[in-house]
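Researcher: Structure prediction, please.
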Amino acid sequence: MKKLMIGFCLIALLLAGCSITQPEKAQDDYKIGILLSDAGLGDESFNDSAFKGLEKARDELGILFDYKEAPDGNYEEKLEELVAEKYNIIIGLGFSVQEALEKTAKKYPDQQFVLIDGQSDVANITSITFKEQEGSFLLGMVAAMTSKTGKIGFIGGADVPVIHHFENGFIEGAKYYNPNIEIISEYAGSFDDTDAGAAIAERYIKNKVDFIYHAAGFTGFGAIKKAEEMGIYAAGVDIDQFYIAEKTVVTSMLKNVDQAVFKMAKTLDEEGKIPEKSLSFGLADNGVGLADIRVINFTPEQQAALEKAKEDIVSGKIKVSAEKGNSQ
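Model: Predicted structure follows.
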């Protein structure tokens, strides 16, 4: 019996020694919640790009995430649900959620929020914006290089400041390459109406527009498909939309929301919070850019002009304005 007791003591000491030399580190996984913008998951654009960034954060950093959609515009309700689920960071995606996000953030001052595609002064909201005008400038040059009629068109989803960035960059880039080019612009008033996009595109094409650029979500899909049907060129937005119409989509203005979301998640993983109040991503940090140019072949001189313009924007030699009337 005595030997048995000694044996138990030795085992206990060994176990205690193991626990001292190899302590277990208890640490909760970081969690991110996101409220997607109006079009929701599967838009092959803005929402899907953000989701891709969160998937990368999950796979590479072990960060957990979940998402909410609010197709009926009930943003506050969905944000309240995310707060109740206790995420380290809650993201509001898109300018349309800003008002609800700010109202919710004021109610929960200890919760950290992130607004993507808007600028907020609320203390516990970090704002992430993009210099869409810089990538759109290059796309405007592509449109001017491609056009045979000298008329190109822009379609916006909503007449709001962030969409003005796309439009104005497009206009400035086109005129930089061809000062005499004519640009037509129209706003559909929706990001999820393919018929409206198709109707605008058809009017454009009948008016001799032969290149269309959209910043209009699903509405823009309708414009691209109509461009394909009627035999003109088009450009995608946010992600590479070449697959939508492989004989029509020359390139796309990439808005790398996925990279911005992943960078934010990495900062959370390393620092436990997002210390910055505001972040902006442009050509210099690969926040925006162009997808591969397909369908048409540019001359070496045209390719060199695009590269030179990109270098000049990054260096500050070319300053692309976000709003009309502010060109420098």
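Model: Confidence is low (pLDDT under 50) at residues 1-27.
Researcher: Thanks, that helps.
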